[in-house]
Amino acid sequence: MKLIARDRKLTFGSKDTIALFLTEEFKKEMGKQVPTELMFIREKTNMEHFRAKTGETLFVPLAGSPAFVLAGLGKKDELTRESLRNAGATVVEVCRKKKIKSISVIVPDLEKLPPSEAAVSIAEGLCLANYSFTRYKTRGEENNRAVEEALVFTSSHERVAPLLGEVEILCANTLLCRDLVNETSDRSNPVAVAQEAKKLARLKGVRCTVLGRQELEKMKMGLLSAVSRGSGYPPQLVVLKYAGNPRNKNWTAIVGKGITFDSGGLNLKPSGHIEDMRCDMAGASACLYAIKAAAELRLKKNIVAVLPLCENMLSRSSYRPGDVYVGYNGKSVEIGNTDAEGRLILADAVAFAEDRLKPARIIDIATLTGACLICFGEIIAGLLTPSEELAQALFTAGEETGDRLWRMPLYKEYNDDLKSDIADLSNVSSGRNAGTIIGGTFIKNFVKKTPWAHIDIAGTSWYSKPRGYRPKHATGYGVRLLIEAIRNLPD
């Protein structure tokens, strides 16, 4: 969607479509909430039954005048940036059903939010809701036609114009992230995802290196190699570097779990749990498109993405429960369950990142544990980190972007649950308790001194139903979160 900033000097034709955002108090404050040029809607429209509650919309086609989409914001003292995003999503939903290609969006002047924040939030909702994955449909559904353009009218258009450019970039990359996760695992296999990463080397400041099976075995990345043994596709380790500030020596490493299909291995997932396991590379996809977004934004930061990519499949070569493998950092791991594979490939990847790349900090993001979904549902991601700076930066970024997360503890006592009789560690606990914390604790054993944070997106990366501006299935969670957090971290 193209976003174009306009000032509040309103001129419209009879074929235009105008989106108005109203709070529940609009009937008392009509003069404040509707521009003078549009006050004729009050006389021409019966709004008796429109309450402007959160999520409520009303489409008003007027003869000889512009059509209106009225979107409810709820009570004005309860407004947030997230509620504005969701309101923008309701407008797009109406416009797509009506096959409207261009909309004029009137950004309201709100007491709680500056005009620029209100404009950006609504624009994000518009762009992020303007999505559907119909690649394999022979006939598109009626409401799948995307809105092509939004004219955003605001009282601070000069300041908003460059911000809308950023919104376009961030949202476009979030939608690309959704596409890659929604894609079939036959087409988004480890080699294919690595090829997508290589394409980013065309962008200014970006370099890409892909390591294959032989290089990984030579480097003794025994955990990544073990997980990939059952697959017909070789494992890949992608290293994507974006040098946005070459004079600075500090780098932020982002590590994304890239299991392009997770059968569970010999601990096979049952029906009801295996069907959507193409989404198990959502962390890698988020990192991939965060790098692309950073380059297109020309972000003055240095970021390196490390993407361990493989499938967890069954064959006579598959790794087995009871096997012991040695990771990149020399620690041995007993396999207690082959379906706890994500922590294994992340362990090798974070150890590699710390040793070879020497970043100032490491953030890993992964669809790691079903326990996180049980704990937080699909609304919040789990955050585990011993670093107060990373905890604050990520939490704040989550509140700003709507990619929210909540911190969980990493007390050393949890290490007791990872003890093995025959190796340094087991990849699972002997019990079923504290699954998300145990997963994070396992990865922590492979980071020596570098500040590190782990984000578990098992619930937030893949929705069972649409929620606001996020569709059913892949949500693109993490792209905007990572950019916002890295933007605000010190050099």
Q: How many DSSP-defined strands?
A: 20
- Mean pLDDT across all amino acids: 96
> Roughly how many Å apart are the termini?
33 Å
Unreliable runs, pLDDT <50, ≥5 residues? none
Strand and helix map with partners:
Layout: E1 2-6, E2 17-22, H1 30-33, H2 40-44, E3 57-60, E4 67-72, H3 81-97, E5 102-106, H4 115-129, E6 149-153, H5 157-182, H6 190-199, E7 206-211, H7 213-218, H8 222-227, E8 236-243, E9 252-256, E10 258-262, H9 282-297, E11 302-312, E12 324-326, E13 332-334, H10 342-357, E14 361-366, H11 370-376, E15 381-384, H12 388-401, E16 405-408, E17 425-426, H13 435-444, E18 452-456, E19 462-463, E20 473-474, H14 479-488
Parallel strand pairs: 1-6, 2-4, 2-5, 5-6, 9-11, 9-14, 10-11, 13-17, 14-18, 15-16
Antiparallel strand pairs: 3-4, 7-8, 8-11, 12-13, 15-18, 19-20
Helix pairs in contact: 3-4, 4-5, 5-9, 9-14, 10-13, 12-14
Outline the structure in words.
The longest helix is centred in the middle third of the chain and has 26 residues. The protein is built from 14 helices and 20 strands. The radius of gyration is 24 Å and the shape is elongated. It folds into two domains: 154 residues, 3-Layer(aba) Sandwich (Leucine Aminopeptidase, subunit E, domain 1), CATH 3.40.220.10; 311 residues, 3-Layer(aba) Sandwich (Aminopeptidase). The chain is an alpha/beta fold and 491 residues long.
Task: Write a concise synopsis of the structure shown.
The chain has 491 residues and is of the alpha/beta class. It is built from 14 helices and 20 strands.
Name the features.
Leucine Aminopeptidase, subunit E, domain 1; 2 domains; six-stranded mixed β-sheet; Aminopeptidase; elongated; nine-stranded mixed β-sheet; 14 helices; alpha/beta; 20% strand; 491 residues
